[in-house]
Amino acid sequence: MSRNLGSRLDGRTYVSTRVEGYELVDGTHVELTFEGDQLGFSAGCNSGGATWSVEGDVLVIGGGMAMTEMFCEPPALMDQEAWSSELLTSRPTVTLDGDTMTLTAQRAVVTFSDREDAAPG
């Protein structure tokens, strides 16, 4: 199943449409791009990347996140990026239902839609 789930994520970009457990900065979203074994990541200002895999139903980020280091305005964007990075590296469970992906971590649930049909939120 994990291989199937991982292959279903590969080649797709997801945009957050709902976040429970954290309030995103107005007008921003979290975006994840799965391409081969690379995960691209953005949460409003900087971008990052890491290797990724799926073990069972758990998203596993390998080797930590590499991030650009621009200063972001408002400063809350920096906090948002740190929160997003922590979410991704916390080994969240991942479910995929059609074009909707959900990441569930200890303190947050983030729902994403495939970028082609997403209305960011």
What does this structure look like?
With 121 residues, the chain is an alpha+beta fold. The protein has one domain (2-112): Lipocalin (Beta Barrel). The chain has two helices and eight strands, in the order αβββββαβββ. The chain has an eight-stranded antiparallel sheet with strand order 5-4-3-2-1-8-7-6. It is globular, with a radius of gyration of 13 Å. The model has no long low-confidence stretch (mean pLDDT 88).
Put the structure in a nutshell.
This protein has 121 residues and is of the alpha+beta class.
As laid out across the biggest beta sheet, the strand order is 5-4-3-2-1-8-7-6
Shape: globular
Major beta-sheet overview: 8 strands, antiparallel
Low-confidence stretches: none
Fraction of helical residues: 10-25%
Q: Number of DSSP strands?
A: 8
Features:
alpha+beta, Lipocalin, globular, single chain, 2 helices, 8-stranded antiparallel β-sheet, 121 residues
